[in-house]
Specification:
With about 70 residues, this protein is mostly helical.
């Protein structure tokens, strides 16, 4: 779970990095089966991180503080 703006920014950077990896593979790989096998892990991770971003953006900062307090308690 993303708890801070810094974690949020790092996650956005990771998403962009993974998207760039997939884009590079799209340009280089000519075999569709190999391409899908190569990018499936990246795409799954992008999906997972996008869900974390969505959850983070859905909560106000005050709500995040309450969530963090629950986790550490």
């Amino acid at each position: 779970m993303i708890r801070t703006d810094q974690e949020f920014q790092v996650t956005l950077q990771r998403i962009m990095h993974f998207q760039n990896q997939v884009t590079q593979l799209r340009r280089q790989e000519t075999n569709p089966a190999n391409y899908r096998l190569s990018v499936s892990g990246y795409l799954s991770e992008i999906d997972r991180m996008n869900l974390e971003v969505r959850e983070y953006l859905l909560l106000l900062p005050s709500e995040l503080e309450k969530e963090s307090a629950k986790v550490t308690a």
